[in-house]
User: Fold these one by one.
Assistant:
Number 1:
Amino acid sequence: MWARKDWTLKELHQRVFEYYRDIFVRWYKEIAEKGSSDRSTKSPSFSKPGSNTPIDYEILMDLIKDESLEV
């Protein structure tokens, strides 16, 4: 992954997330389908921004599709 010197820190974080987004989607999907992950012993424990609602596969897909990832 390459980063430009003129990117702000916010732009860099956005690009890093876009780069790794597929990994997060596959991780959550595998846990949703199997109940666990073959590649990770740790389950994701993230919550939706601005609330205490834990993120699952469906919420993650809604966040990516419907909401802007901009802060």
Number 2:
Amino acid sequence: MGFLPIFYAGTFFFIALCGYVCLSVVAGMDALGKRVFLSILAFGASSYAGFLVVILAISFSPFKAILEGRAQPLIFGLAYILPGLVGGWVSLKGFGALRRPKRQG
């Protein structure tokens, strides 16, 4: 694999750090800055892992002809975006559950 995963992770870390600095340091919204940082990193990790899992699952299934058709860019795009969105959403839900006090009652 070489240098590409390191470059990918570094790029997402840099984007997340820029979002955190813009919101936390410049705008003074520390809680939102932490959420943005976490969700961007979760999007990057989930989209990378999800893309690999989906493509490997399709390539070893009887639906392998999908990867050679005209729908290949659409399949690749959805295989990258959807796991990333799910990972970002789960990270935001998890962050909210950690910060929210439990109700007594």
Number 3:
Amino acid sequence: MGILDSIFGNNNNNAAGKFLQTLTENDFTTTDHQTVSSTTDWTTIATYQCPAQQRIAVGWGDINHPDSAGRIYAYIRTGEGTPAEITGKLRILVTNYNDTKRYVLFEGDESHLHGDVNDITKKEVLVEKRPLIGEDSYIKVQIKPVAAHETSGAGNDNVGWADTTESLLRVPITVYQ
């Protein structure tokens, strides 16, 4: 690696201006007690907007080094007094500002994405995915539940985001500046 590469970076994994981050439920825009009434359509339950002057890739690392790759963790639960798991398919996609272009980067069974939040073996590998997104583009988390959750009012069976006894989300990203 030359001195200019070390200063300005190049296109490898050690490029300058690239760092790894894990988004949590607090980084996403969510709606507490959100209705997920369709078992046939995808419902967006969390959205993250790419900040100005950044480029973001979902995930980090590569498939040849899974021990150092990013890991996704998702435990989607209701907002009831005793939260219950909302089972079904979960997917992560990126979209442009107008939501006219969509790229699904991950899709899996929600029940396989959680266990002990501190146990790496309970998380699914999520290596760096393209396309990179930029300012005004979004990372979205969607769910297609096995059963509808559409009770109105507080303490209902809809998606709960109020505290750590409810839904948890960890999505690894690579940030380029």
